[in-house]
Amino acid sequence: xFCEKSIELIRELQRISDGQLPAFNEDGIRQxxxxxxxxxxxxxxxxxxxxxxxxxxxxxxxKLRHCCLLRNQRCVTAYLYxxxxxxxxxxxxxxxxxxxxxRFHMCSEELQWFNQYKKSLANFxxxxxxxxGLDITQDMKPPKSLYIEVRCLKDHGEFEIDDGTIIxxxxxxxxxxxxxxxxxxxxxxVLEHVMS
Amino acid sequence: xDPSEVEFxxxxxxxxxxxxxxxxxxxxxxxxxxxxxxxxxxxxxxxLALNLKQRQKCRILPPPWMDVDKLEEVREMERKxxxxxxxPSPYYMELTKLLLNHASDNIPKADEIRTLVKDIWDTRIAKxxxxxxSFISQQEAHAKLDNLTLMEINTxxxxxxxxxxxxxxxxxxxxxxxxxxxxxxx
Amino acid sequence: MSxxxxxxxxxxxxxxxxxxxxxELIAKLEEAWLNEKFSPDLLENKSxxxxxxxxxxxxxxxxxxxxxxxxxxASLHRMEIDRIRFxxxxxxxxxxxxxEKFFPHVLEKEESRADGDPSYLSPEEYAFxxxxxxxxxxxxxxxxxxxxxxxxxxxxxxxxxxxxxxxSFVFLRVKERQDNVMVEPETDDQREYVVDLEEGxxxxxxxxxxxPLVSTGAVHLI
Lengths: 196, 186, 222
Description:
The complex is a heterotrimer. By secondary structure, chain A is mainly α. Chain A has helices at about 5-15, 25-55, 60-95, 100-105, 110-125, 180-185, and strands at about 145-150, 155-160, 165-170, 175-180, 190-195. Chain A has a three-stranded antiparallel beta sheet with strand order 4-1-5, with helices on one face. Chain A has a two-stranded antiparallel ribbon with strand order 2-3. Chain B has a single domain, classed as Methane Monooxygenase Hydroxylase, Chain G, domain 1, CATH 1.20.58. Chain B is built from six helices and six strands. In chain B, helix 2 (about 45-55) packs parallel to helix 4, helix 3 (about 70-80) packs parallel to helix 5 (about 110-135) and helix 5 packs parallel to helix 6 (about 150-175). Chain C has two domains: about 1-100, Methane Monooxygenase Hydroxylase, Chain G, domain 1, CATH 1.20.58; about 165-220, Ribosomal Protein L9, domain 1, CATH 3.40.5.60. In chain C, the strands form two sheets. A three-stranded antiparallel beta sheet of chain C has the order 4-1-5. By secondary structure, chain C is mainly alpha-helical. Classes of the chains: A mainly alpha, B alpha+beta, C mainly alpha. At the A-C interface, helix 2, helix 3 and helix 5 of A face helix 3, helix 4 and helix 6 of C.
């Protein structure tokens, strides 16, 4: 059956939940492209025959092959485009440097796309609203003017909180800090939220 | 919309606090606050009230509606009426949560208030489910939603809107020649 | 320190002709934020609001630099700055997400708009959308399309990428009364009818019907 390989590419992404990026299926793409090449060549020769020898009985199979070609093209682009959307989401989740295990799943063109996306986004953020620009990958959650109890998991040095007070983040020390100031440090594993 | 964003909007509501410090009038971008004098009530947004409270710099006065007698009345009305009665505050649920979690020592009969607000919420959400159900089964094109709060709308938003869009797509795909169904294609 | 911050107050008090006060400006930003969040389509850009808010933030941050550490007033200002910056970032993010999602359509609309019409994209957004399109086209070509048969080496992205679904339902609150808003029937056996949108009332209806009212500010999406 034609188009089975390309449907398999689509299924592959559908099986894996939205946030995940499976390994780039280079082999699958290659097989679809080969099938397309074969379909196209067969059509070329049938078209010539149909024209040259008036074999109008060949027309239905030419049409069928053409539909398969279109479907293959559509499935391959859908596969690639869906992966780009997942890769785009990674920029927002991980920042501009991707973990090696994720890069490992990307093909070199995807890495190029990612790097260009990063650049476009950075240009955009630099040029927003005047000279200073604004990093819109920060402030993902509404700020909370509330304080939380945190414990320091490693030495981090001095840290300035919103009212300008400077505190020393020393391993195992506990602090009462504005929550929104700690979020990044909690993500980085410097602080942990002490649940009371 | 994330519930934390609805809460963020609720934090703009104004409450009265009694500060224990003095501070001149302060000119925020979004409006003036203060002056603050120890013992004198002053109006501030909830986000500020909660912060000052945590730093033990003020006592929060519960909003007038956050009162057992008043809320009992609201609950009775809400149970009696088929339609939505005016909510005690456009952010009653979020404010109850915020104030009871962070300033319960300033709210008389906090536990009773928590239960009453929960009852009111449950009654309203049950009505909301019923009306969403009939909206969909009657295939209505317009509904008036007065007195619903943003948090209430938000609890049903994605489910209701997704269902409506899905039904729309199914319907328009049945009619040949329309292009509406292609929106999620590809 | 009080000198540093009190000139902020005088800014607010002399309301110049047709210049928004900071209070109005923040209200405009919040309205634009919620409208953009809930609208299925990309709305007109509000560059002037974004720029004015950025200016306010920069100005305030600069003033705070001169303030004594640990000052109570400064901490209140910083909390407010964080709140405003969140709304601003979230607003710009919502727009960028839609631009990415609908890029071929967004660009087509922007490039085919008549001269006097308001532009949907800010100059920065336009540059971003063009780069996004070029990047994506280059990518598809390099990985697959150029290896396909000669007649299949291009894909019309405008046909392939989904369009904004203007038939989505939205929740809205009415700011200025509107009479005789047409409601189109959902099924063949229903008839169209009109509703009046009273000031302060809330509704659930299709975005398409009220889209012009969102852009004039007569209704707010919620």
